[in-house]
Amino acid sequence: MKESYDTSAEAGASRYAKLKADADVGTKSETQKHAESGNSASVEAQSERSSELRRPVSFPGWREVLEGSDLPSAEVKSFSITIKWYLGYCKKARCLASRDTANAFFETVKRERLPEAFQLNIWRNALRWFFQAAQSEPRGVEAETLPPETLSAEHASEGGETWFETFLAEIRRRHYSYHTELSYLQWIRSFAAFHGTNELQDLGEAEIRKYLDFLATERRVGSSTQKQALNAIVFLYKQAFRRELGDFSDYLRARPKTNLPTVLSRDEIDRLLEKMNNPYKLMARLQYGGGLRVSELSRLRVKDLDFAQGRIIIRGGKGNKDRSTLLPESIRAELEEHLVQNRLLFDQDREKGVSGVYLPEALERKFKKAGEQWIWFWVWPSRELSVDPRCDLKRRHHILPRLYQQKIARAAVAADIGKRVTSHVLRHSFATHLLENGTDVRTLQELLGHNDIKTTQIYLHVMKTNEDSVKSPLDM
Predict the structure, then answer these.
(1) CA angle, 116 as apex, 110 and 122 as ends, to 5°?
(2) Of 318, 323, 397, 410, which one is the catalytic site residue?
(3) How many angstroms separate the CA atoms of 108 and 182, rounded?
(4) What's the angle, vertex CA 222, arms to CA 219 and CA 226, rounded to 5?
């Protein structure tokens, strides 16, 4: 194991320092020798202590120890949920519980959930208790091998989640998107953590109302965020538990707010693109030129680019709807060259016997080898292989949207654009610039894939009109 190797190296260095000190006995006083000997022993003890802290542990009796501790009952419940969550993460990642995996766990949590500082402190305290108790209890022993049980399900149940399997089966049976599945699961676990229990069947309308009030008053979330949490909880009770909820419509609703979209000028678009490198620059140009959502952009496949018709076919967009939008002529040659490079990567995967790319479940059952065909390959493939969280196959996924979004944000800073720039700003800019060029609202609605034309009409408020010629009285 790497940890034992590092520990031996540190211990060897400590012994070498001690031997060298003993060899210099003739040149040093007795007091100095004792001091150095003590320092060496201290370094060696510290090295051993550090190694012990980083050593993987198996602590099957942690629940009994936690419940028998002197901690307040509320803290016991909170710690239990966090520890189960962490151990579920370890099973999913097929790794052992250790300080290193705990650090990786927190990095993942911070990246995916964006928790507040007080939440992180609670979770850290829970895992700090876990490792300290594992070292002091005889039931907490060093784990030399991986546990035999591993979970192939995407979100590895965190232990004690009696609702998990039913929820997962129901949401997948209804063909909800993977993103929605993740989002609902996050909100349900937040609901469970808020009430300090995983026995959600025992909760009802009063507990749901209390949680929704908390989101509006303490978390101060927006109206759409609160509705998303509500939808997740209602789905759990109605579809997984088969339980009709009573009336709790008197919960405190988050205040709705209509935000005008941020739009970049054409000059700002050019400055932003100048600070980016391919393939992310080409992605940004295609998103601006076609008005795609970032999820639609990242999931594009080779067959979705219709160069003959100058169109991009969006498959399974928001609301699981298909549509077509514009394929900019100005980047056609560069896109074709990009696909030539992708073909080399595709051929390399086929030669190495890599599993085909992910396909929607119905297609994968009907056309078992379709994922190994070029037309289904990603337009923006990841450079590295990764494990498919739903089936444990190692295959090539598309570029993560978050990575692309980070490139956009950094380019905006480098270009010194004085606006909050996200990838979605490119979609806003696409819509606004088309309206300024005379495109009618109905056509724009089709290109953007909006259900309600009122959603599209918001861009009328940010486009340049004759009103821009009106002067402020201060300038007269």
Answers:
(1) 90
(2) 318
(3) 14
(4) 80
Q: How confident is the model at residue 145 (pLDDT cuts 50, 70, 90)?
A: very low
The pLDDT of residue 467 is: 56
Lowest mean pLDDT among 101-115, 201-215, 335-349, 422-436: 101-115
Tally of CA atoms within 13 A in the half-sphere of 187 that contains its CB:
23
Q: What pLDDT does residue 220 have?
A: 83
- CATH code for the part of the protein at 266-414: 1.10.443.10
pLDDT at position 8, please? 38
CB burial of 237-265 (b: ≥16 within 10 Å; e: otherwise) equals bebbbeeeeeeeeebeebeeeeeeeebbe
Instruction: For 303-430, list the strands marked E by DSSP.
Output: 305-306, 311-314, 323-326, 381-387, 394-398
What pLDDT does 474 receive? 64
Tell me which residue has tokens 């520990």.
Answer: 7
pLDDT of residue 56: 66
Active-site residue, 427 included: yes
* pLDDT above 60 (res 334): yes
Cβ-contact 292, 313 below 8 angstroms = no
Domain spanning 164-240 has what CATH number? Answer: 1.10.150.130
DSSP state of 458: G
The reply to whether 63 belongs to the active site is no
Q: Active-site residue among 189, 285, 293, 398?
A: 293
Choose, from 33, 311, 390, 424, the residue flagged as catalytic.
424
DSSP symbols for 291-331: T--HHHHHT-BGGGEETTTTEEEEPS-TTS--EEEE--GGG
**Does the active-site annotation cover 94?**
no
∠ CA(126), CA(132), CA(137), 5° rounding?
120
450 is catalytic: yes
pTM above 0.70, yes or no: no
Label residues 17-49 b or e (16+ Cβ within 10 Å = b).
ebeebeeeeeeeeeeeeeebeeebeebbeebee
- The percentage of residues in the chain with a pLDDT greater than 90, rounded to a whole number, is 19
